[in-house]
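Narrative of accomplishments. A recurring question from our advisory board has been how the design workflow behaves on a single, concrete structure rather than in aggregate. To address it, we present the structure tokens for one chain from the evaluation set, followed by the sequence designed for it. No filtering or post-editing was applied between the two.
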């Protein structure tokens, strides 16, 4: 599945991720599905990581609920979530895989491992607890 993200939203994610270093930053992504199934992200939510950790994140449940209501009010589809990896590469950790319970979701990871070379990737994760399959999605920044 292809994902489209606007440059301005990429920049907002990047700023939010940088502002939260050394902790992971997190949020939600929403938008519209194009006829060919491509997911066009038209709204990125920058939310609080209530774990305040450099290797975990939990989205504030109140902010999560408010974001879902905002998506409904604006006719947007919830696509999944995003979080940053301040010190590690842009790929799901073992814990990320374990917590990825929604095979329809897009999981985005913004790595700040190399300060001058941020990396954003989108993933599809499926399978049961014992064995999760991770696939990198095609991501286009426009
Ligand atoms: Zn992670």
């Amino acid at each position: 599945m292809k994902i489209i993200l606007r440059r301005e939203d990429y920049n907002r994610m990047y700023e939010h991720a940088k502002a939260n270093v050394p902790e992971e930053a997190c949020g939600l992504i929403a938008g519209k599905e194009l006829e060919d199934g491509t997911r066009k992200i038209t709204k990125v939510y920058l939310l609080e990581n209530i774990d305040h950790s450099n290797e975990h994140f939990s989205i504030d449940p109140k902010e999560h609920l408010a974001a879902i209501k905002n998506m409904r009010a604006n006719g947007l589809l919830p696509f999944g979530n995003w979080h940053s990896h301040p010190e590690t590469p842009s790929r799901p950790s073992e814990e990320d895989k374990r917590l990825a319970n929604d095979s329809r979701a897009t999981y985005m990871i913004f790595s700040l491992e190399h300060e001058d070379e941020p990396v954003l990737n989108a993933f599809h994760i499926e399978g049961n607890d014992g064995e999760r399959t991770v696939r990198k999605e095609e991501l286009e920044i426009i």
